[in-house]
């Protein structure tokens, strides 16, 4: 899920990010690259899809301007030191984003970063999310993000999102428990929803 940066969040990598080149990656079938302004239509298409509606926590995308606001936030994350967001694209069509993944860098004192991701529903069930997240996780734990103190990757999912839980399990994440009434959600503005908390530690084995 993608939230606005909390007012009290610490820019985690502010001293390094800006100065560091964006950590693009390639996998057998995919590229993980920096977002560009031209990705606005892809972002719009993905988040307008009806299958995505119950699964993400963004304000409804009523216009391309809403997609642009999200895109601007994503593009600014790395240079501002708030995190990293990769656009995911197929190798043969690197300009066409089919999803994204990334980490929010907060809670510096905990050594934890929060993973989130999305994939165009037209591209589900090909293993692309798994492949992209393996590369992202390797980048986090091999210190390419410039933060050797990262010891823990967290992910929060809604209990109504078994596909996401399945993905995290396949990547070796452990379910730690249910965070009760933890976060406001777009379809429950007056009530906080429960979220499952998952984690992968630097020392955990990652299934092949
Ligand atoms: C979560 C989400 C990314 C998962 O997408 P997905 O397509 O299920 O995940 P993957 O790309 O890893 O695909 C895995 C499936 O592809 C299959 N697959 C097919 N070819 C494959 C290949 N070559 N390699 C690996 N897996 C392959 C796997 O068997 C698996 O199928 P299964 O679910 O029936 O077991 C997607 O549902 C999504 O974007 N949800 C909305 C956003 C969201 O929920 N974010 C989470 C909160 S941050």
CATH class: Alpha Beta
The arrangement of helices and strands along the chain is: EEHHEEEHEHEE
Number of domains: 1
Outline, from the CA principal axes? Answer: globular
- Which fold name corresponds to the CATH topology? Aminopeptidase
- Average of per-residue pLDDT values: 88
Strand elements, count: 8
The end-to-end distance, rounded to whole angstroms, is: 25 Å
CATH architecture: 3-Layer(aba) Sandwich
Poorly predicted parts: 1-18
Please give a structural write-up.
This protein is 24% helix and 30% strand. The chain has one domain (25-201): 3-Layer(aba) Sandwich (Aminopeptidase), CATH 3.40.630. Helix 1 (40-48) packs across helix 2 (64-80). It has 4 helices and 8 strands; from the N terminus they run E-E-H-H-E-E-E-H-E-H-E-E. Strands 1-2-3-4-5-6-8-7 form an 8-stranded mixed sheet, with helices on both faces. The longest helix has 17 residues, at 64-80. With 208 residues, the chain is of the alpha+beta class. A hairpin with a 3-residue loop joins strand 1 (25-26) and strand 2. It starts with 24 loop residues before the first strand and ends in a 7-residue tail after the last strand. The structure holds coenzyme A (COA). Coenzyme A binds next to strand 5, helix 3 and helix 4.
């Amino acid at each position: 899920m993608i939230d606005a940066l909390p007012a009290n969040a610490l820019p985690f990598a502010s001293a390094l990010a800006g100065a560091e080149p964006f950590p693009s990656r390639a996998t057998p079938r995919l590229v993980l690259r920096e977002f560009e302004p031209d990705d606005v239509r892809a972002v719009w298409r993905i988040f307008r899809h009806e299958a995505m509606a119950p699964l993400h926590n963004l304000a409804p995308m009523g216009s391309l301007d809403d997609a642009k606001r999200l895109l601007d936030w994503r593009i600014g994350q790395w240079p501002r030191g708030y995190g990293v967001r990769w656009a995911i694209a197929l190798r043969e069509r690197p300009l066409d984003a089919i999803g994204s993944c990334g980490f929010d860098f907060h809670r510096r004192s905990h050594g934890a970063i929060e993973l989130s991701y999305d994939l165009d529903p037209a591209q589900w069930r090909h293993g692309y999310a798994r492949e992209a997240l393996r590369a992202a996780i390797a980048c986090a734990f091999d210190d390419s993000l410039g933060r050797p103190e990262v010891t823990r990757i967290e992910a929060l999912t809604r209990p109504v999102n078994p596909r996401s839980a399945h993905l995290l399990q396949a990547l070796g994440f452990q379910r730690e428990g249910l965070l009760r009434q933890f976060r406001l959600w777009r379809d429950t503005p007056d009530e906080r929803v429960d979220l499952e908390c998952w984690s992968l530690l630097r020392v955990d084995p990652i299934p092949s």
